[in-house]
Amino acid sequence: MSSQDIPEENLPAEQGHAHGAVDVADEQNPFADPGLPPHEHRIQDIDERAAKRSERTVAFLFTLSMLATVGFIASYVTIPPDRSIFVFPIGHISALNFALGLTLGAALFCIGAGAVHWARTLMSDVEVADERHPIQASPEVRAKVFADFKEGATESALGRRKLIRNTMFGALALFPLSGVVLLRDLGPLPEDKMRHTAWSKGKLLVNMNTNQPLRASDVAVGSLTFVKPEGLEETDEEFQNEIAKAAVMIVRLQPDDIKDKQELEWSHDGIVAYSKICTHVGCPISLYEQQTHHVLCPCHQSTFDLSDGARVIFGPAGHALPQLRIGVNPEGYLEALGDFAEPVGPAFWERG
Question: Where is it chiefly localized (predicted)?
Fold first, then answer.
């Protein structure tokens, strides 16, 4: 069926020349405007059966997008992260990554393909030439814009073609769930893990260098030793996460040099244990001045006084180092009497 077979009243009106345009140039209008070429009507414009086929095609693509989004979520939940598959010609790849990429790509592609097919086959494709107008629109132009918008909404058939409208809304509403599911991959909820470390009552203090528990007699006055909790091994999967909170330095002072009452009570025979993690940005503290009992963070020179509750005496750190309460078990080994009384690390107090 062609446009010649359709009564004139059923065909869209042809657009003429823009205002002021002429077919032949003259002195007043030196540039001729030949106008727009004759409009070729699409089969969907003149055959409602073809329009229905296009409508079903668009709805099918939007439905595929919804199914792909559901597949994305199902793949994320059911496929183990360590499973691999062979895909020619790529080779062995992660089954989870392959499924997520395939379903997410399909969901996006079907939404785009459906929108493009809808625009090319069902929305109006008549070319319209309009006059340029000042930036500040006049009331007449504003009225025309609103009228054109209403006309465009009518021509899109969004209200009349409910199947397309409902499936499009379904695809667009369901697809963002993929992003919500991806947020779960940021890791488990922290809960109160930041407030606790691997230290607990009875955990022995193990020398980081020798991997052996320490006796009080092994710690000389003025020495600095780094220790870790008993049972925390470098081969453990969570070692780096745990040692980042549980790293401790011990120093032996003369009991008479300790100024802070709580520090003296939480020490053993002058041996004090403090977190090694600087309270500025979390750098490991490693420098010790024996004569002043000061420890220095090498990153930004925050300085703490270990003889006075590890308070900050210089630098950008905002808090004293948390102290670990220690004692000695019946075998003479140094042990923790609990966890830190406050969270370790930088600026945790302000964050909650």
Answer: membrane
Task: Label residue 184 left, alpha or beta by phi (over 0 means left) and psi (-120 to 50 means alpha).
Answer: alpha
User: What domains can you pick out in the chain, each with its CATH number?
Assistant: 3-186 (no CATH), 193-351 (2.102.10.10)
Is residue 205 a contact partner of residue 97, using CB atoms and an 8 Å limit?
no
Please give the C-alpha separations between residue 12 and each of 41, 122, 124, 327, in angstroms, as whole numbers: 9, 14, 10, 93
Cβ neighbors of 131 (< 8 A, separation 6 or more) are 18, 19
Task: Name 13's Cβ contacts closer than 8 Å, sequence gap at least 6.
Answer: none
Q: What is the pLDDT of residues 179-217, one digit of tens each?
A: 877 776 666 666 777 778 889 999 999 999 899 999 999
| pLDDT tens-digit readout, 227-286 | 999 998 888 888 888 898 899 999 999 999 999 999 999 999 999 999 999 998 889 998
Euclidean distance between CA atoms 102 and 31, whole angstroms? 54
Q: Is 42 in contact with 125 (CB distance < 8 Å)?
A: yes
The pTM of the whole model exceeds 0.85: no
CA 48 to chain centre: 47
Distance of CA 64 to the CA centre of its chain: 27
Q: Rounded distance, CA 45 to CA 13, Å?
A: 13
313 φ/ψ angles, rounded to the nearest 5 degrees: -115, -10
Token pair 């009518």 is at which residue?
A: 154
Beta pairing class for 91-94 and 205-207: unpaired
Cβ neighbour number for residue 96 with a 10 Å cutoff: 18
Single out the residue of 202, 176, 296, 307 nearest to residue 254, CA to CA: 307
Q: Which residues contact 22 (CB under 8 A, 6 or more apart)?
A: 29, 32, 33
Nearest by Cα to 331 from 238, 218, 221: 218
Structure tokens at 201: 């009552």
Q: Is the distance from CB of 62 to CB of 169 less than 8 angstroms?
A: no
Q: What is the 3-class SS of 99-116, one letter each residue?
A: HHHHHHHHHHHHHHHHHH
